Amino acid sequence: MTNKTDNIYASQTNKLAFSFDDQVAEVFPDMIQRSVPGYAEILKNTAKFAEKFVSDNSHCYDLGCSLGASSLAMSTGISAANVKIIGVDNSQAMLDRCRHHIENFKHSTQIELHSGDILKFPIENASMVVLNFTLQFIAPQERKALLQKIYQGMLPGGLLLLSEKVCFADERDNSLMSDLHHQYKRENGYSELEISQKRSLLENVLVPDTLEHHISRLSELGFSRSSCWFQQYNFVSIFAVK
Ligand SMILES: C[S@@+](CC[C@H](N)C(=O)[O-])C[C@H]1O[C@@H](n2cnc3c(N)ncnc32)[C@H](O)[C@@H]1O
What we know:
The chain is globular. Strands 1, 2, 3, 4, 5, 6, 7 and 8 form an 8-stranded mixed β-sheet that branches. The N and C termini lie far apart (35 Å). The longest helix has 17 residues, at 171-187. The protein is α/β, with parallel strands linked by helices. A hairpin with a 2-residue loop joins strand 7 (225-232) and strand 8. Helix 2 packs across helix 3 (69-77). The chain has helices spanning 22-35, 39-53, 69-77, 92-103, 140-152, 171-187, 192-202, 211-221; strands at 59-63, 84-89, 110-115, 126-132, 154-167, 209-210, 225-232, 235-241. It has 8 helices and 8 strands. The chain has a domain at 39-167 and 205-241: Rossmann fold (3-Layer(aba) Sandwich). The structure holds S-adenosylmethionine (SAM). Residues 20, 32, 64-66, 69-70, 88-91, 94, 117-119, 132-134, 137-138 line the site of S-adenosylmethionine. S-adenosylmethionine binds next to helix 3 and strand 2.
């Protein structure tokens, strides 16, 4: 896959909100790598979690799969037999590129891609489900029902890997973590204009929850245990076991 540089917001944009359109899909690997602290680390560990949790004759789901990075990471770690990885996304621009990417990348586990809304997509026989920076784009009032559906479709002992941008109860922590995140973006070559335009466009599109809210919701839904295993600034990854 070519790694085109993200300069979408380098000049004044007339877009009203962020969306996963063709322009974003084209530069997505560069955009996510330079914008999300820990993204590469989380993918590397997705393979390790898959190695431990994916069981024979089961399904793995990559919900909001974008270009398939988490599907490919899972496939790297899976040693179980007769496993199918199912990637779902509702952006056709992402899925078209994802298909091409997956065809060109060596992987031993079958990967099936579906165009669709993860809120409606059936989940069954799942030993691992990945929501890698996707839940934050789902309307807050829909999140619990989505997680409940995922829980119901999981096998006992199965793993949910949930990575998210989070907010903090204390406004001072929000602004500290946000400053450090913006510094991270500056260090990765984004200008003040790019940072501020992206921030405005994501408002009301990416709506973060607190880490505490994530953990308590997972527990209310019945997950036997859950914990944050990775955090850098306002970006976290949580594992939850059914
Ligand atoms: C930040 S990206 C996810 C990155 C990806 N999981 C990875 O590991 O590289 C969020 C993705 O979720 C998709 N998405 C958002 N809402 C969705 C929905 N309701 N149904 C399906 N996909 C959705 C977007 O199209 C986008 O590709």
